[in-house]
Amino acid sequence: MNLPADRLLLFGATGDLAQRMLLPSLCALDADGLLDNDLKIVATARSEMSTRDYRDFARAALEKYLPDHRRGGVAEFLNRLSYVPVDATTREGYDALATEVGAYDKGLAIFLSTAPSLFEPTIEGLVHAGLAQGNVRIGLEKPLGTDLASSEEINDAVAKAFSEDRIFRIDHYLGKETVQNLLALRFANMLFEPVWNATYIDHVQITVAETVGLESRVAYYDDSGALRDMVQNHMLQLLALVAMEPPTSFDATAVRDEKVKVLRALRPIAREETVTGQYRAGAVEGTAVPGYDQELGKDSDTETFVALKAHVDNWRWKGVPFYLRTGKRLPERVTEIVVQFRCVPHSIFEGRGASTKPNRLVIGIQPEENVQLSMMAKVPGLDRDGIRLRQIPLDIAMPDAFSGTVRRIAYERLLLDLIEGDQTLFVRRDEVEAQWEWIDAIRTLWEREDIKPKAYGAGSWGPSAAIALAERDGVSWHDE
Ligand code: BG6
């Protein structure tokens, strides 16, 4: 049984993620009394600064990124922080770091949010400083490699010092409330599971659309592209949660055992099942924006959009396509899963002039958290000219259904789980490697077939070929 750690060590503590997500999340958890009184947070990064400087830095980040209504307790939170500069590539800083961390009776949780090239030397430094013993667990932020080989290398390096039950690979989508709600929907209701299969489901769509462009991550993104940045991790995790068999319990082993079976059952993508795109200048939400290569300052073949038609080769999903698409500079920010059911086998209303449409379940993950089931209903009336049926939604808006509860960002939950040692919402090594294997095969296909991204205007839903990918099968993307 894990005890909540009494030390938290943040690598990459001056980075963008720390400012935007980690510090605000920790401060909010603290203000809500969810951090132990004796939890001390040691921050580290390469920059030379004192604890006092770092507290000022953290205060500025909190002022910028903590929503107004969660600003309580900042001063108390800052008192938990101390800072030790470490150049992760040399051994020197680690002894000072170990001294600052001091004794941790209950456990030490480490959060590594640094460039992947620093993972290996950091692990060695931790071992050298005695910061990798049995009650130390380590959280790893993406990117965990750029392909299967580099990911194995990182995993091997971490495994030399930490057993798998102490490694917490982060995919922040798993910390999102509605993503977990998908499990509640599937496995806490009798209604869906009996029809959650190829007999009743026509296809599934998963969309992760963003309006942002490159932001400040020019070098990272251009080396990565949408396939590795979004599909390899977040989208495949969503797919696994939609497609997995019911786990026997909501615990780390049971859930991850089922997810990995899905990931291993993914059929390699064929030539005609993939479309890539790169945005050109256009307008997003009414604002003119430059094209990708203009933002980048050079020509590039990196894809900012991917659409795929995937298949899970098992009994449950035989013949059910999973259409996936993600992109930057799309018309709106939306993450959703659409489960399209089949038509009724025989419509008794046809002879009376009414047509039926198949049911559709839309699980909105962001920005709206909602679940919408479209149903057929009769339009009221005496029907002298025939029966009229219309599709109407059964609509659950989560914020309304649960008003008064705090909506927490993904990192609050994930940091707390790391501190407390619960691995259920973290990705296991075999999952990451199955994800990479499938992604690597797609990249090999692109190279072999010389598939280059097609242009799409910023503010559109990607290249027209992405629409054709679905329409060839008589499927329309859910774009409203
Ligand atoms: C990150 C990607 O993992 O997820 C980013 O690197 C992307 O490119 C981000 O913008 C999206 O996260 P969210 O939570 O805003 O959907």
From TrEMBL:
NCBIfam families reported for this sequence: PRK12853.1-3, zwf
Family the entry assigns: Belongs to the glucose-6-phosphate dehydrogenase family.
Active-site annotation: 234 (proton acceptor)
HAMAP family documented for this protein: G6PD (MF_00966)
Protein name: Glucose-6-phosphate 1-dehydrogenase
Domain Glucose-6-phosphate dehydrogenase NAD-binding positions: 10-181
Domain of life, source organism: Bacteria
Catalytic activity: D-glucose 6-phosphate + NADP(+) = 6-phospho-D-glucono-1,5-lactone + NADPH + H(+)
Domain spans labelled Glucose-6-phosphate dehydrogenase C-terminal: 183-478
Residues given in the record as substrate binding sites: 172, 176, 210, 229, 328
Native organism: Qipengyuania citrea
Keyword line: Carbohydrate metabolism, Glucose metabolism, NADP, Oxidoreductase
Entry-linked InterPro entries: G6P_DH, G6P_DH_AS, G6P_DH_C, G6P_DH_NAD-bd, NAD(P)-bd_dom_sf
SUPFAM superfamilies listed in its UniProt record: Glyceraldehyde-3-phosphate dehydrogenase-like, C-terminal domain (SSF55347), NAD(P)-binding Rossmann-fold domains (SSF51735)
Protein residues bound to NADP(+): 46, 142
Keyword rRNA processing: no
A single GO molecular function term of this UniProt record: glucose-6-phosphate dehydrogenase activity
Enzyme class: oxidoreductase
Function comment: Catalyzes the oxidation of glucose 6-phosphate to 6-phosphogluconolactone.
PANTHER family referenced in this protein's UniProt entry, alphabetically: GLUCOSE-6-PHOSPHATE 1-DEHYDROGENASE, GLUCOSE-6-PHOSPHATE 1-DEHYDROGENASE G6PD
E.C. designation(s): 1.1.1.49
Gene: zwf
Gene Ontology CC terms: cytosol
GO biological process, one term: pentose-phosphate shunt, oxidative branch
Metabolic or biological pathway: Carbohydrate degradation; pentose phosphate pathway; D-ribulose 5-phosphate from D-glucose 6-phosphate (oxidative stage): step 1/3
